[in-house]
Amino acid sequence: MNFPEDRGFVTSARLWGPQSPGSTCRRVVALFLTLMIGSGCQEPPGASFRLNLEGRDPAEISSLAREEITRFLEELFGTPDEPRLPPGVDLDLGRLKQAAGHPVGDVDAQGTAVIRRGYYRRYCARCHGISGDGAGPAALVMDPYPRDFRRGIFVYTSTVPGAKPSREDIRRGVRDGLPGSGMPGFSRLGSDVIEALVDYVIYLAIRGETELLLIQYVVDEEEPLPLTVPFKERFVNEDIAFIASQWRAPEVEPDRVVVKPPSAPSFDDKQERAAWVQQGKEIYLSARAQCSKCHGLEGAGDGEQAGSLYDDWNYPKRSPDANQTEKRARLYTLPLRRLRARNLKEDLFRGGNRPEDLYLRIAVGLKGTPMPGAGGSPEVPGVLNPAEIWQVVWFVRSLSGQLPRCLESAGHAK
Question: What is the pTM of this model?
Fold first, then answer.
């Protein structure tokens, strides 16, 4: 059965087109893959989570270690078809079960086909993968790659450096998408479906972080096998509890963790506005801010370091030696891919185009990338103060010729 929501693949295909680089061949392949998967070619029930051995030689991990890790993770988190929650993880199990599993649909009272279960596999797995590893069947033809949720790192957030994203950060990514990437917005699905997907994404992230830590204990620290009951209890009560507390922090301690942009200043005349933009340019070019090193003197994304940028998912794959890089590449699912510094003249920002969105990108940085946060945290002073961040925002918006719209909307956060 094809559902009305399947029209979402058109949005994805368009986003893969002129808004991102790539040959016509790559775009055709991307469209073909998405059409096939979007029309119902998905994994049947009984799918399993793929063990995260990124960067490791599989031959060096014993079958007993794999079995023990897999078995314990299933005790804690269940399977892609039947999720579970370990103690201390505050997610809605009912919503998880709605998001999990193979897509199941029926017809409502109005005669419209709707999906009742399996939201994640229907709308997300084609890119992000069943395991949330960012290596779904369409991943290779997408730039940037789909997000790998398993490290618990999300690029576009409103939280201080080092903190997990808030629930609203993830909700907004699902609802609005990431402009200029292959990630479409799913606002048409409605709030109930979006909330279920938010829960499931966080579930995959917590499970992924738990998996990495468990592999570290078993493989790197040689925890005795089979895993004992005392170890499992300690792991749940201490390690998983700590991971879960990090995810709760934005909701229970928002004043400490979540950054709320202050109101943007207003101006009485054009000269004041021009002076504000000029001050922003001076900060942008300064050694203190170091914006131009990546984004370039004119903001075109061609700074002196622009050719050597990698995010946290790709940096471990590289080496100064080409042969070593090729050898490392065999240990990863997706090939090495360089990160491109944003061309600030294009007026297209994946984290949002509103002035307050740009404020957050500068203040908290882009987690998992070389772009640090300039705004600091309650415990650590930032490189820039709030007024200086707004000045840089004004300058950045002037580069794309959208300053009047920016000035008109600034200070009216949604």
Answer: 0.85
